[in-house]
Amino acid sequence: MAPTSRAIIDTNQHHVGTEPHLHFYQKGETIPLMSQGIWQICQGLVRLNTLYPVGEESLLGWAGPSMCFGSCFSYLDSYRATALSDVCLMFYTMIEIETSPKLTQELLPQLGRRFRQTEALLAIAGKRRVEDRLHQLLLLLKQEFGQSLGDATRLNIRLTHQDIAAAIGTTRVTVTRLLGKLKQQEWISIDKDRHLILRNETFANSSDLFRFDRNTYYRT
Predict the structure, then answer these.
(1) In angstroms, what CA-CA distances link 58 with 26, 47, 113, 158, 197?
(2) What's the pTM?
(3) Fewer CB within 10 Å of terminal CB in the chain, N or C?
(4) How many other CB atoms are found less than 10 A from the CB of residue 101?
(5) 188-202 in b/e burial notation, b at 16+ Cβ within 10 A?
(6) How many helices (H) and strands (E) does the chain have?
(7) Tens of pLDDT, residues 35-81
């Protein structure tokens, strides 16, 4: 279980020994990326992407509570972070991280989560059938942003059909059709807040692509 936003603030303030560097961004806002430091999310969700010269966007992943991101981890010239909800972030300079072994120890596992997610998205992109790519993406989202509801799991990340299409390299129309089919089969449903709910019997924490560790199962 990820720590609460208050726990992240209190723990890391103790490690750094200064006032917390809290920043707030509203849903839809672009979060500035500075090369001399990194962000850690206390609350909310962030989409990471890049922009091609022709104007098209490519998804790089998502970051939720406790996770870290920053341009210093990327070779990409165009690297953007957008708030998918209202977010609360903490900013750490590289000097603060380098001089605080305890803070480094806290941040390292969260950096590992981001790298695992990136590798998973690359592996999903290699699946030939779009149906398989969608199924594997939903499994990944369940692992990263799932909240247990007994025999089902609610995804605490709300994505548009276009967001999903960008993640698996297909069209919005195709995603709409495939999700409609899954809903007809009662493998998924949608709650009043437009969050996807996955039936656990269909979306088990195992696949031919991933080997999820139960100890890293994450709920927001």
Answers:
(1) 22, 11, 20, 18, 25
(2) 0.79
(3) N
(4) 10
(5) beeeeeebbbbbbee
(6) 6, 12
(7) 889 999 999 999 999 888 777 778 889 999 999 999 888 888 888 99
